[in-house]
Amino acid sequence: MTITFIGGGNMASALIGGMLARGRAVTDVRVVEPSAEQRAKLAARFPGVGIAAECGAGALADAALVVFAVKPQQMREAARAVAPHLAASAAVVLTIAAGIRLDDLSRWLGGFSRVVRAMPNTPALIGKGISGAYAAAGVDSSGRALAAGVLEAGGAVVWVADEAMLDAVTGVSGSGPAYVFYFLEALEQAAQELGFAPADARRLAYATFEGAVALAQAAAEEPATLRAQVTSKGGTTERALGLLEAEAVKTKIIGAVKAAALRARELGEALGRDD
Fold first, then answer.
1. β-pairing verdict for 115-119 and 129-135
2. For residues 208 and 202, what is the distance between their CA atoms, to the nearest angstrom?
3. Which of 9, 35, 119, 249 has its CA 20 to 30 A from that of 43?
4. pLDDT tens across 65-92, in order?
5. If you classify domain 2-163 with CATH, what class do you get?
6. What is the 3-state secondary structure (H, E, C) of the chain?
């Protein structure tokens, strides 16, 4: 069962590496990548994987799944190049290009309807990501399983019942790693301003975040309860959280996530225009 990737950049490479690590045969994977430099990198990293410079019948022949892993601005051109090879195909198409709506992709593919749209995030590059996914009505359970098999190579998958929810996925988990990095940046800077050397400041910040997430995942309680459990009356944590509450930090974080989701919707509308 062949899987053809359209685009062989970082995310495609991560997913391919994850699939091969999970037992997928190299002969089951093909990549269409126009950059000669990137094709050379792919060939060196994944010996035996079929690599082509353009979308031809050979690259797409008998593909059970076609994965679009190109930049959103390149999707229209890439889809139109693939469309002639899908006309009589039983393949399922999976797109991981941010913001591209299924109606628009289907139109560029000449009306092809077996399409799945997903929004992964950057931790997928190390197999620790999470993707939101939505399947069009024309995709059956086996098609969803095919798409999930690729996405799970980069981490967990959450299926949504409404495509519009993928904008919310973008706001929460797609942009989410940047929020985490922002918090780590602040924690690290605070440690340095309190007298720690940069290396120790970073070690304290990273280990604190990693440990807190691991504790939260292992606990039965929700985060609010865990927070209350480590906040002693009149103590240091209460003082710190009081300042955050006074500055409405939680409200602003929620607002930031909603702003990202709204921007995802705006970008999706703009990217789908044919004018």
1. antiparallel
2. 10
3. 119
4. 999 999 999 999 999 999 998 877 889 9
5. alpha beta
6. CEEEEECCCHHHHHHHHHHHHCCCCHHHEEEECCCHHHHHHHHHHCCCCEEECCCCHHHHCCEEEEEECCCHHHHHHHHHHHHHHHCCCCCEEEECCCCCCHHHHHHHCCCCCCEEEEECCHHHHHCCEEEEEEECCCCCHHHHHHHHHHHHHHEEEEECCCCCHHHHHHHHHHCHHHHHHHHHHHHHHHHHHCCCCHHHHHHHHHHHHHHHHHHHHHCCCCHHHHHHHCCCCCCHHHHHHHHHHHCCHHHHHHHHHHHHHHHHHHHHHHHCCCC
Task: Give the amino acid at 266.
Answer: E
Structure tokens at 45: 């990293």
Q: Which amino acid is at 81?
A: A
Distances (CA, A) of 108 to 43, 73, 273: 30, 13, 11
**The token pair that represents 249 in the structure block:** 């930090």
Q: Which residue has the tokens 């979308």?
A: 55
What integer pLDDT is reported at residue 275 of this predicted model?
63
Closest CA to 130 of 143, 105, 148, 116: 148
Over range 109-119, report the average pLDDT: 94
* Cβ-based neighbour number of residue 104 at 10 Å: 19
**In the structure encoding, which two tokens stand for residue 218, read together?**
């292992």
Output the pLDDT for position 273: 83
pTM to 2 decimals? 0.90
- Whole-number pLDDT of residue 117: 97
Instruction: At 3, list the tokens.
Output: 């899987």
The residue ranges of every structural domain in the chain are 2-163, 176-265
Q: In what order do the strands lie in the sheet with 129-135?
A: 50-52, 29-32, 2-6, 63-68, 92-95, 115-119, 129-135, 155-159
